[in-house]
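Example (one chain per record):
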Amino acid sequence: MIFMDIFTLALIIVFAIALILFFLRIYTLYKYFRIGRNINRFDHAGKRFLFMLYDTLSQACSRRHKNYYPGFTHFIFFWGFILLFPSIMELILGPIIGFSWEFLGTPLYQALFFAQDAIVVLIVVALAMAFYRRYVIRPYYIENSFDALLILILVTIIVITITGYKAFQIAIAGTYPAYMPLSLFFANLVRNVPDKTFWLYFFYWFHLGTILFFLVYIPYSKHMHLIASFPNIFFKNNGPRGELSYVDLEKSEKIGVNDIRDLTWKDYLDGISCTECGRCTQNCPAYQTEKPLNPKNVIHTVKYSLFHNAPLILEGKNDTVPLISEKQDHLSITPEELWACTTCGSCIEHCPVYNEHLQKIVDMRRYLVMNEGSMPNELADAFKNLERTGNPWGFPSVKRGSLAKSKNIKTFKEQKAEYLLFMGCMGAYDSRYRNAVEAFIEILNKCGISFATLGNEETCCGDMARRSGNEYLFQTLAKKNIDAMKKYGVEKIITMCPHGYNTIKNEYPQLGGNFKVYHYTEILQMLLRDGKIRLKSSGERAVYHDPCYLGRYNGIYDAPREILEKCTYLLELEKSRTESFCCGGGSGRFLMEEKGKRINEERGRQIVEKGVNLVAVACPICMLMLEDAMKSLHREDISIKDISEIIFKNIEINTQKDEII
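Predicted structure:
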């Protein structure tokens, strides 16, 4: 009885110390989080909670994008913890308050312990797979650290000690529980071992000590994501993926982010939720082409900067380390890294815990541009041109409506129409892309669609300015377009460019511009389904390159394919749909010099490997970048065509009625 009292007292003391250390660390993190700016992520709480449950319990977050190998191991580790947790509770609370799961009734009690034996076997398999993946076939985007090794060792100890404890417990009791086959197997091996009581307590304390050490260690390690990922999924961005945050220019003394206090508590949560799986890095086109940007490091920099600077801020000290610095270390990000990003969204698409890399990158660009006046020379010239002429090349603004005028297309000033055809900078000025615009205009005319343009009253949509950090210029351009659209009562808009589509649809509402926006491929799909056009098949072997801003940003994957399947022999690139590889031209990169291996050429090589002679695109920037890639690769025999050009070439015409059918 004295021994049991000492045993229980020791258990209470050890358990209490572990809980105190754990919650002290959680409280410290809470104080750190209070430093950040507020952001409202409590809308639709019920919907958020249900999604969090689904995503975590199914571990869909780990298996997305066919990541089956790591997905399986994470699924087993997650459910292993869930199923072993009842045993941990019983081991701790049993000696203290006599708690046991036997109150569930014999069938449920036995089913629980059978499931625990089964999951231990699967955990062993998952551990073997994890060790093999990390230390034998290690992918380049996985970093081996002491932290990762320690966690795998701790999990190994936990499954060994729980099995050993149960085996000696059964051996001492002299029972043969068939519902615990694994434990019974090892119990039969140790029935004749002397000093079984000693080994029972040895495994008990070793198991419990490992569990409690794990509990205390988690908040200090990368495995904080075991806790933080739940709220991070709950608080994920439920708005359009292509929407950046709004900045109130009149009320903001400082625009952008360079200090840890400029970020939100959600940004901090992203940092400690990172699983270090490397999927953002694996799928980043900038990193894949040896640029300095590593999306995972952006998230880690936020975390390390928080841990370094928050204690100083709480102590009232001012010697904090800025987030942006020419010095490359774990506390800061270099401007070169920030400008390497194409804002393709692949990092967000592949993150299992829904971290928001792009907003952080753009916010830091905003700081450089709006506060420091620092930007690449090419962007500085483009900004000046946008301010003066409404396009990044400096072409006269009075020439913006010349293409539409040459086709006798009316402006809204001249007549009201059902649709506004928003030309965009490339559609209005680029000599190559004008062919695509002319083809689409011809189709609309033949189908009797009521449309008009803004003519010279249109200006750049502002996408490039915003994603390059010039928020003031974006809002100036956007408000000019919105004012013109409202003046003429525009309700429906067709865009040629996915960048304009995303900006007008998802970001103009921030400035009061609420319109029904269509990408031109959606209109073509509608005309095809309504029977207003019919296509003949050329039989050409073709592939479709998914634009980032049309696909990943806005989920339009099927409309272009439905059209192309009617007139070509359409094949799929290995990297397509959500996996599509960026052309390299987003956020103004099409205007900037690219050092080293080029993103568009890497995409070009992927196309060449497919063995086709026709590449369909639905974005003027993609057309520009891919045509340039084919020239560099000396494969000008591969044609880059806009979908509207391909459609126009393969439309069947009723010569009697002289109309498209």
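Caption: The two ends are 94 Å apart (CA to CA).
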